Give the backbone structure.
Amino acid sequence: MSSVTRPATGTEAPRPDQAAAARARLTRVLAWAAVAGIGSSILIMIVASAVRHSPAVPLMRWPPGWPPLELAGRLPVAATYAALWAAVILGGGGVIAGLAAVARGARVPARLLITTAIVAVAAFAMLPPAGSTDTLNYATFGRIAVLGHDPYVMTPDELQRTGDPVGRLAPQIWHRHGSLYGPMATAEQWAAAELGGTSPVRIIFWLKLWNAIIFLSVVAGLDRMLRSDPARRARAHLLWSVNPLVLWGLVASGHLDVFAAAASFFGLAMVRSRQADGEPGSAEPRRLGPGPLVALAAGALVGVAADFMLTYLLIAVALAWALRRWPAALLAAAAGFCVVFVPGYLWVGRPLLHNLLLRRGKLSADSFYQLLSSAYKTHLPSGPDVAVVLLLGALALLLLWRLPDVVPDLPAIQPALAIAIAWLFVWYYQLPWYDVMIIALLALYPASRLDYVVMAQLTAGSFVMMPGGSGLEPPLGWLRTFAHAVWFAWVPLVLIGCVVAVVALCATGAWKIGPPLRRAVGQGG
């Protein structure tokens, strides 16, 4: 019986080798898109930071000599806005493409990623602050402390009236407000002001230099903890080390959030559980908590984080939740936290809480609540304010219940992500650099669809804050029209979409969790 060879039709499934080749091509495209997007984003940000008269750089008097380094000249306003908006899309998209490529089997050499991070951090550290005016606030409060005044009581306006050269630079929105930062942040600002003298540029240089060192310490910590697993190692460096949006928010802009994020990261990473000897008839292996000394140190580091920014009390709650099954470790962690946290806040006293309460209900541009009513563009009244607190609690409980606990060796990671994501996604005052509370922690969690939702949130928030250097609205015309559409429609829609995505993941369980770490964290060769 003769065989008949039928012609191939368009409906036939591709052969396995064709499917594998197509998959490999897509993986290569994603990898190269990540390289191009991340690299071009960082270069655009460096150029925008390097020019003296740039919309991304706060205007201030430059002393002779260096550092910081800067180029004389002026960047066109519209071109700078457009370039930095492009940098956000390229950077966020590049990281997302890189995460997808790593999930599909691509491997970027860790040394290349670390070298890129070091070069970018060094460049940003030596350049003027860009993307935010917050470093001017830090310099002002540090100068107030150096002069022997209380930065929680004395305002930049009062410092300016003394004729002090640093006091003249505080942004207008801060002129009548005392410091909102914790006592350790004030100590850091005081030290920078001591070294910088009457030059705000020099004060800011020291602040940015310390930020760069702390940022790189997290790079080193992630690399050491994940060095046994090439995929997890590359993903961690994409999320933190070479992420242009993280570099811009922490090193280029000089935000002190890096201290709080680093302290909480190292504190939670210390909390390890150990598997006890199996018991006969036991379905689940019994796990032992960390020793008292380790828990004490972890609590102290989380106390340091809260001593920089009070919002990191959320991480303290997560640590307590993680240790609830081990009373001895919980008490030790609480003792370590209180030893660090309580004295500092007793010292600063009520003025800090008063300053924080004055800003209750204030909305940021990085918020979806502006979709609800035109009356909420700057401030939430007390009723919706309470509703947000209830929404935050509900989402935190949902995530604690439904976010898979797939890092049993690090029991504090899942509750920290659950509580912090709830706050970052639904609280009414958010800024993109606040997201670093979870970025390094996310790197210790297995790859999942949560990576992409977090990156979408960070990208949207970074987009709305560009260029950030002047603190003023863009000029009239198409630029302001476009910016207002971004602020009050497009970005809020993306942000509320991220909240819906998190709730949908909780409801469906479609997290698509990647493989666990090949060897125990911190024990790789």
Q: What stands out?
A: Strands lie at 51-53, 71-74, 274-275, 287-288. The longest strand covers residues 71-74. The CA atoms of residues 380 and 476 lie 27 Å apart. The chain has one domain: 23-273+289-508.
